[in-house]
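Input record (one chain):
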Amino acid sequence: MTCSRPRPPQSERQRLRTVAFERQNGLCHWCQTPMLNAKGKGPRPRPRALPFHYATLEHLVPRHIGGGDTEENTVAACFQCNQERGGAMTPPHSARYAPKRGSAR
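The corresponding structure, as predicted from the sequence alone:
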């Protein structure tokens, strides 16, 4: 699905990604993997894994559903989690994030 609203300028997307990256201490919102920001800041992951560990801008409520380009609606996610989630409202690999049954007593 595509969104009819125009995307914010590249500089605004970079700012939102950097704010989220710093707010999350360089960790992916979904899998907690250390990431690199586009400017190369952050912990250095293994060289073979680099493409999957760059921070991307992720919308919690996808733009095509009406989510905005705001700091409250955006997080930093690794490329792999962002691609797995796509335009869904659920987290990627949602079974990993589901609360465990019987854990509350």
